[in-house]
Amino acid sequence: METMEFDVVFIGAGPAGYTGAIRAAQLGMRVACVEKEPKLGGTCLRVGCIPSKTLLDATEKLVLARDHLAPIGVKCSGVSADIPTMMARKNKVVETLSGGIAGLFKKNKVTHVTGTATFKSSTELLVQSSPQAVTLKARHFIIATGSVPIELPDLPFDGRVIINSDQAIALEKVPAQMVVVGSGAIGLELSSVWRRLGADVTVLELFPSVLPGSDEEMARLMERAMKEQGLKFHFNSQARGLRREKNQLFVRYSTKVADRPDEEGELPADVVLVAVGRRAFTGDLGLQNIGVKTDTRGRIEVDGHFRTSIENIFAVGDVIAGPMLAHKAEEDAVACVERIAGGAGHVDYNTIPFVVYTSPELAWVGRTQEQLKAAGVDFKIGKFRFAANSRAICMNDTFGLVKILADAKTDRVLGVHILGPQASSLIAEAVMAMAMGASSEDIARTCHAHPTLPEALREAALGVDGRTINA
């Protein structure tokens, strides 16, 4: 059996693994990255962020051409979806980006090892791949194996009728009736895709509103927008399993009603998408055999430097506590290797942006209005609606608003919430402002080009002090 030696070995080639491996190589380390799948990029690139956003973009353009161009003087006829072409393009995007990572590995002299990894000891990793295996020895190992969809006991995945998000991006035809369990980001995004393509979509949500944990005002507006697009919702509702009657399937559910027994109901379904979150995935790494500790949720326990209970083994991304976001995982990995190299890697978890890529998009950074109230923080609010933004009016895309929350005494920005066109891009300015400790006055006094969508952010900042100009 061949043995190879490195300074750092990453396990997993998702956003954390491949980004961290490249950064480690830039810092002069001998680096290997182990990935069990044939394509590099992890869940995010292969079956998550990238393919889902490709389908979201395609279906958004479909609806735009079919329903929204005529009022601005662009007439389209015969607009329809070509599912095979749409899926083929999605696959091509994945292939292109995965191949790009392979090219970056080659450029940075990162050794790519394909296979399934298991720790033999704290300094040796066995990687098994057909027809042979290899042993990797390293001074440091960094676990970046990501997460997998959570499965419900009453709705176990079968990949055909009861599916997870990985499978929801690869359906070969549009289901007539789709039931989605969960209205988080993944649930809403994939509901949007299949609703736009013609499915009758009903969402079951355990909590009282969409996007639990987000700013409540924004969640209410998002719910309104989704309902206008044809999605149906049952809140305070829990899926209880399937009932089959001849050739028809029904999802059984119960709904909590105040001061009354739960109400029982059923929904017809051709496909049931379970999107209730994700859990850390460590596979068959053999962590218990070498003493790596995990918490009650299966996440690897780490200290402030990403170090596990074993001194030379680290963990980053979805396998540790914190938001399960690709960009958070990347930041973890870079900070981890920079610390290993003797630097001062740092991640500010208060300025990690969150994005829901529906239409309208929702993006936020920092704390919500409800969180600030619960913490007893005295704050001020500035708002500006896209209906008064000249560029949004030019684009005929005016639903939503920008909301800025700032400390009442210091004026420091504590949270920014954007629902509307291109929110995923607009949030970057807010992240930068918060990372630099900016005040709402700083944003308000920064010149923004006219006419642009970012002017809405400036107007909201002006609104914190009650001096909005264009509303």
Domain count: the total is 3
CATH topology of the largest domain: FAD/NAD(P)-binding domain
Specify the helix fraction band: 25-40%
Rg calc = 24 Å
The CATH superfamily of the largest domain is FAD/NAD(P)-binding domain
Q: What structural class should be given to the helix and strand makeup? A: alpha/beta
State the gist of this model.
The protein is an alpha/beta fold.
Q: What can you see in these coordinates?
A:
The chain is of the alpha/beta class and 471 residues long. It folds into three domains: 2-149 and 279-349, FAD/NAD(P)-binding domain; 162-274, 3-Layer(bba) Sandwich (FAD/NAD(P)-binding domain), CATH 3.50.50.60; 360-464, Enolase-like, domain 1, CATH 3.30.390.30. The protein is 32% helix and 28% strand. The chain has 14 helices and 22 strands. The strands form five sheets. Strands 1, 2, 3, 4, 5, 6 and 17 form a seven-stranded mixed beta sheet that branches. Strands 8-15-9-10-11 form a five-stranded parallel beta sheet. Strands 18-19-22-21-20 form a five-stranded antiparallel beta sheet, sandwiched between helices. α1 runs parallel beside α9 (326-340) and α3 crosses α6. It is globular. The N and C termini lie far apart (71 Å).
